[in-house]
Design a protein that fits this description.
By secondary structure, the protein is α/β, with parallel strands linked by helices. 36% of the residues lie in helices and 13% in strands. Helix 9 packs antiparallel against helix 10.
Length: 331
Amino acid sequence: MKTVSSLLDENWQVRYKRIANLNIRSSIYDVTNRCNLRCKGCFFFSSGEHQVTEETDIQKWENFVDKEKERGVNLAILIGGEPTLCMDRVEAFYKRLPTYCATNGLIKVSRDQFPDMMVGISLWGGRADEKVLRGRDTFAISSKNYAGDPYTYYLYTITPRQVGKIEPVIKQIVDVGLKVHLQLLSNDEGVDGFSWSEGELKDLRCEMDEMLVRYPQTVISSKYYHEVITTGKMMGRRFAWEECPSVTESRDNRKPQPRRLIHFIRWASDLQSVHRCCTSATRDCSTCKDGAAHMSWIMVNKREHMNSTEDLQNWIEVYEMFAKLYRFIPW
């Protein structure tokens, strides 16, 4: 029987032990239905997930978060809409739970109010693609708001038009003293020119690998993650509804049950409704390129990565990446 100690040398065992007992229990929360952008391809609006009556009573939000903590959640991932439009709700989470805030970066999070909250800024390519997909160059504003912030990174959603052109974007991020994590656009609204071909995905994988080598202090990623997210395959299995680990527990009627995130729920902003999964309720899962979903897919399948030293090291690197992005371990 292969064991961790038989597969790893002393240095890798230290890395494994650092993450082995983290016991991350995350859920996702729509803080608001409103946004100060309307991005083409935004799964939140394209799937109608904003069509609930938003809870506005802050006391109800505080009581809700208390119950989530009792449920065992130790990572609150705040999305929207745009969470920074409702800082009192963000604060309700931050005062009670380890909290991550996904934002477009147009509104600056006060570090007096949220000194160590991890902030992930969405970025959808270079200036030209940002203007096509989001209506404006958000980097020009977000980079001024967060330059040099040790608890902030860019979540760079790469589009097919960016293949061969991502290094200038990485350099911009280096220049403002921030980190970057890479994921791929899922073209939920079928915008012309933004759907992936196999050749583009193959080329992008090589390019992502190269960026990790050239900018190891800036790019928070791993080559194995690049392989899985560009091919949609892990250990000979293809990502699909039958495999996804981040399905809301009460919506998960799959039989047999795959390995999944324990007690995961994606809550709507009415604090009563739940969504199907961590992304779009209408997305064809076979086309999903969501980075967190693919990271989680790897993480919950540790046993499948116990076949060889290389497989287990790949698993450790992805788990470390996730833990860094949500501030469970340092950069």
